[in-house]
Every structure is written in C-alpha cells, then in structure tokens.
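Hello,

Our lab assistant flagged a job as stuck in the queue for most of the afternoon. It eventually completed. Since we weren't sure the result was trustworthy after the delay, we are filing this so someone can double-check. Below is the sequence as submitted and the structure that was eventually returned. Let us know if re-running is recommended.
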Amino acid sequence: MPVRQKLRRRRRTKILATIGPASSTAEMLTRLFQIGTDVFRLNFSHGTHEDHAERIRIIREIEARFEHPIGILADVQGPKLRVGQFRAGRVHLQSGQTFRLDLDPTPGSATRVALPHPEIIAAAGIGTTLLLDDGKLRLRVTRKRADHLETEVLVGGPLSDRKGVNVPEVVLPIPALTEKDREDLAFALAQGVDYIGLSFVQRPEDVVEAKRLIEGRAWVMTKMEKPQALEHLEEIVRLSDAVMVARGDLGVELPPEEVPLAQKRIVRMARQNGKPVVVATQMLESMIAAPAPTRAEASDVATAVFDGADAVMLSAETAAGQYPAEAVNIMDRIVARVEQDPGWRAIMAASRPEPEHSSPDAIAAAARQVAETIGARAIAAFTASGATALRVARERPQCPALGLTPELGTARKLAVAWGVHAVVTPEVTSLTDTIRRASEIARQEGFAADGDEIVVTAGIPFGRAGTTNALQVAHVGKTS
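-- returned structure --
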C-alpha cells in the first residue's frame, strides 16, 4: 500500500490558479498543486466542454493521489457586450468627432458601427458614458433614437472588430446568465465543480436566480465587477456563498483611484458576513512574460493579505503565461512572508468582526479565545455543511483550523476558506468519539503531537446541521 503524501500549506491565505494552455497537462497541474494551488479556476470564456472535462478529471486524480481536497471554480462568461465589425477590420476615432452606434449589421466605418444590443440603446440617455475596448476609448451620448445613439468621442484611439462595450452609469435590463452560461452551468454542475463564478452581477436578483438554478449543488462565488453591484454590496454578499473582487472589469468602469477603496470595502463586507473573499486580476501580471514580478505587484499581493482576504488569484499568469509554476511559487512566498510579520497578526486581530448573536458564532469566538489563551496547536471544527469551519475562519485564529467533515464536497468547498485545512472523516456519534477523532487527525496531519492541546467544536445532537453548541479542550494522545 503506497504511503500517503501529506500536504500542509505554510500559510493561511489560499491561492487560486486559472487553468489554460500553459497549465493544462497532468504534469503541470500536479506541480501547481504541490507548490501552492488550493483551488483551480476553469474560465468558461475559453475552451470546450471536452477541454474542461479533461482538466477536471486530472484534478480529481491529483486529489485522490494526495488525499487532499481540491476546489474547482467554474467561472461562467456572463453577457459580453461588443460592437460589430468594420469594413477594414479597424478604424481610428479622433477625439471630438461624432460616432454613431446603431442596430444596422452592415460593417462599420470611421463614422459608425453596429451595436447589436438594443438594451444598451434603450437604457442609455443623453450624457451617458460608453467605454470601448476595456475603457481605452470613451464616448458620450449626445442624441438618442429608437435604433441608434449619436455620440461624441471624448477619448479616441484605434477600434477594431468585436471590441467590448461597458456602460458604467446604467443598470442594463439583461440577465447575468446568458444561454451559453446556462449550458456551461449545467455541464459544470454535472461534472461536480465546487464553485460557480457568477459574472456581470448588477443586482441581488441576479444572485437569487443563479442560486435557484444551482439548487445547492455548488457554492455561488459572485464576482464584484460592476459599479451597480457596489450599490447593493451588503445584500449581494449576504446572498452569495463567496465573493470575488474582479478588479479587471471593475477597473474599467470605476476610476483607477476608486478601485483600491472598492477592494477594501468588498473584503471588509465579506469578512463581516463570514463569506470567503478572493482578490483577483493582474496580481502578478508581468509574470505572463517575465520570471519574476515587479516590486509593485509583490506589494499588491501583500496588501490583499493585510486586508484579510481569504484567497488571492492568478489569471493569465498561470493560464497563458510563460512561467505558471514560478507565478504560483512567488505568490506562495509573498503570502507566507506577510503572514510571518507581527504587524499582519495585529491587523487581523484589530479588524476582527464582532460575532453575530447566535450560539454557533459564540462557540467559534470562544474557540479562538480559548486556543489563544492555552496556546492550542489547532482548532478542530466538525462541520457537515462547512458553516462551522467558516465561522472559525472568520475569527482569523492564530492557530490552524481543521475542518473535519463527512462530506467530500464540503471539504472541497473549504479549500477557499482562510486558514482551513479540510479533512474528510466519517461522521462522529458521541463526544468521546469526537475528541478521539479530532486528536488522531491533528496528529496524523502534522498539526499536533502527543501531549499538545487542541480545541474541538461540534454540535449536539450529532449529525444535525447548524447545531454547533459544544466546545472542549483535548489533549492529543489521551482519551477523554
């Protein structure tokens, strides 16, 4: 019988890595997992279902080999708003000129182009700003008709076929899930992914609709990338299972000086609500083509860790970059180094949210306090749904948290949660069994040795979700 290859991260903040052409082989995925990836992201804007199915198969093989749960995020594309095509494939717009956006599919010119989205024309008003090609070009609506918009070019530049359109000032009457998204969603759920990345969310209703379709088969990770979503931030976070600060699209529609503040606000709101929060986009962007990041990028990753984010994410760096393994390695090093700093620990303590007025939250807060007082080696949280482990993670304890669950799906979902080392274990049936099992796992996983103390939380009666109401200190190696 082969000896199990134990894996224990040296940091609390998790790492997500996007899979793409640079990282789709079994060898590379294994390497990325070993050096630091906790969750793999599948970007459904690219690739076929067959591509994604093969990558999921490989990840599950890696998971079985290392006996360590791995999360998989299926990131659906969402509605992509784009202009049509040009006769010459490309034009150059001059600042100050007039430019028309209409419903005519005829290839465009330097004076007009198709905008095959009547909902934009209907929702826009005089003075509405339109951003083209990730915000590189800026137009202002000067005249509106039922089938077209006349605009003034405020910031010109080259514009080519099928470039994106953003309308930051308007809530568009379009669903967050397109027909393509619904097909991708059904496929991803059938494959057993753990999180669905929900793009283009504008309203709380978008999250409600996605959860209705998902029916609890995966956690919804809402991507905060629209200014309109920020207007409903608290309700969207409350409805979501996890959130992502998608700074790429958010940075297109918000002024650059607003993005860092939005990031901090989203992270703070997610932490208050006990929802895992991921900071994403352009974190180590230069490593797409270089073997080392800039010092500013290293500082950017560190800032997310100091903010208390549950996870940081790599996008093109691992999907299409020349140095995917190096990107994961340096991100792991940056995160681990920040978490060794006394200032980081002080910030985590100072920014800890107040516990909610419930028994499970009181137990989680008490578990942290007891663990810190006695110098416990770990907090072992028995959890069926993952909620108890998330409550412990919300406390940002000094010691590691063991998320002990009989559900493999729950263990995989906890891969994104700050500081949680998830282990699948059979259901416990008594307090004595609970203490014994927690002590054995803490020792086997390398978190404690005989004679060490751990703090154990559980729910009585056993096997019933949402009943966390028991806390006990256990001595590893002794039977209670």
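-- support follow-up --
The delay was a queue issue, not a problem with the job. The result is valid. The chain has three domains: 14-78+176-341, 90-166, 359-475. The two ends are 32 Å apart (CA to CA).
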